[in-house]
Amino acid sequence: MRSFRSLSAYFMLLVAVVMLVWFTFAIGRTYIDLVAGSKHFSGNKKMQDEEIVFKLPGLDFWTCQVGLFQSEENANKEKARLKELGWEAEILTEKPWTVAIGLGYSGEDLKVLIDNLKQNGINVVQKHFKLQEQSYKIAGNGSRVTASFLQSTNKYLSTTGVLEKQKELDVLAKYFSSSYPQELHNFKQIVELMKDLPSQTIQLKMMDFFLYKEYNNTLIRLSQKAKNL
Hints:
The protein is α+β, with helices and mostly antiparallel strands.
């Protein structure tokens, strides 16, 4: 009996040891899985922060220069004066500061706008501008959407046909049908205003220029950020 009891105790001890080993292994396995899961999550975050490099073709357009100033203050005063007269102007260049209205693809394309400005006593000089093709780099959440939107904006600005431009404007509007990067908030307001305007109007040419201005400002900000990446 004593032998049987000893054997039974030995068997129970063996079972306990096996269970302890299994439990330790299971805990260790679970820990390994959790660590592996953490690395996988870290990888997703890196994907969100990946850099996007994209290319934008050059742009070729004309605008109506209505003022040239040696100080930003005087340029802004002229913008305010024109706004009171019903004209939406923007500062196109700095040092000197060029105040301009409207965007077209030739001098003839701006003829109606130029005639209206002159009839209102505003001196106009046609100006031809070219932007060279350039590559850009951005990173962070929403980078792919931002890059895609800027490429679509570039295509809209380079499109000349009325129907074709309307199609490209519809493409821009679709970017704001759901969530979008904060970087594009100003674009949303401009595109919404443009959608409400008839094609081939002076107002739309002025809004085209607003769109270009925001496009150019965004590229400048991206260039500055890229230096810090």
